[in-house]
Write the structure tokens for this entry.
Amino acid sequence: MAAYDGEGLTSLCDEHGLLTARRALESGVTDRCLQRLTRGGLLVHLIRGVYLLGSRRVLTAEGFHAQLMRGARLLFADAVFTSSSAVVGHGVEVYGASLAQPIIRRPVDRRQGPRGIVVRRHASAWVDTAYGPCVPL
């Protein structure tokens, strides 16, 4: 695998600078190359299966959580954000809640998901936001 530079990585990422491991592998980027790019700071490993361009990382807690939310939507198109993730999705400032993991609802019977995402049973009502569907506040 040829070394990837910032421009080559950008072409693989979506408009938010996110890249799924699946898309990278389909484009010929190996797991080992992803690891090297992460160690070198060109990529940030957000959650299992999702990477972010290092230059696009937001340092505020709410901004980084929004990036985690977008990453979760890449993995689960049927995800609806709930709890503190819904608050961030609605653009409301969050105080005192952990923003370390996105919290989603999915139409599944079990509460399992990849490490880094909290999965709960699906919500019946939701509204669309800039970050994806969220439960109403």
Remarks:
- Helices lie at 6-12, 21-26, 31-39, 61-75, 83-89.
- The beta strands are 18-20, 43-47, 50-53, 80-81, 103-106, 118-121, 127-129, 132-134.
- Residues 61-75 form the longest helix (15 residues).
- Residues 37 and 43 are 6 Å apart (CA to CA).
